[in-house]
Amino acid sequence: MAISRYLEYALCRRDALSEPERAVLRDIPVHPASYRDGEIIIRQGAAPERSCLLVKGMATREHRFDERAKITSALHIPGDFVDLHAFLLTEIDHDVVAQGDCSVEFVDRAILERISRENPHLIRLLWLHTLIDAKLHRVWIATRARLNALERLGHLMCELHARLSVVGLVEHNGFAFPIDQRQLAGILGYSTVHMNRVVQTLRARGLLQWSKGQVRLPDPDALADVVGFNPEYLELTPVHR
Predict the structure, then answer these.
(1) CB contact at 8 A, 167 and 10
(2) Max intra-chain CA distance, the chain
(3) Residue 47, SS3?
(4) What pLDDT, in 10s, does the model give residues 184-213?
(5) What is the pLDDT of residues 99-116, one digit of tens each?
(6) What is the rounded CA–CA span in Å between residue 237 and residue 15?
(7) What whole-number distance in Å separates Cα of residue 219 and Cα of residue 31?
(8) DSSP conformation class of 207
(9) CA 173, CA 218: separation in Å to the nearest integer?
(10) Dist CA 51 CA 86 (whole Å)
(11) What's the predicted TM-score (pTM) here?
(12) How far apart are CA 161 and CA 114, in angstroms?
């Protein structure tokens, strides 16, 4: 079974891929797996021998301090290699947890090692993938410290709209969002009541539609202006690397 096209879409948005490079990507053998809502896809501890590409659904990166306390530092979408950084690490300091039903593809470390030896440009783009992941993490830290609840929610929705557009999963400014208000409140660190109040405010202002696992941004540019969203950190301009 070949690797998901979502990864190819994400890389092509940042740089041109040659046909041989596309062939290398498409020929990567994978081990598919499925997870239910709340199941741990990658567990904190020793770095796995396989890297995990998310191909359906969403997943969170969670740092657990005890049985009750956890901090979410990332939200992953299809096309994300959720633990590619582990390729050079010995320990993983977080869990990756399914949000809704998820499908993933595992790639053996030996395959990535071969690509790193034989396809230097392609491996640079894969490392770019991890660098963008790190930029997302830093922006999450900054928005947690700087923005209020309404701005953080709006910023996240703008970010997801931009990231999902890259892999072709936005239609008429709408996208699947398998996370309910209670779960999102936990991800962002607010009470469910406060999150509901913020959602209702954005709805009343005509900036957000959200129901039955679907989110739609009626005017993404207007929401971006309200919350100060700038997509530059997503590295969406194609540049030869």
Answers:
(1) yes
(2) 54
(3) coil
(4) 999 999 999 999 999 999 999 999 999 989
(5) 999 999 999 989 999 999
(6) 8
(7) 39
(8) S
(9) 7
(10) 7
(11) 0.94
(12) 34
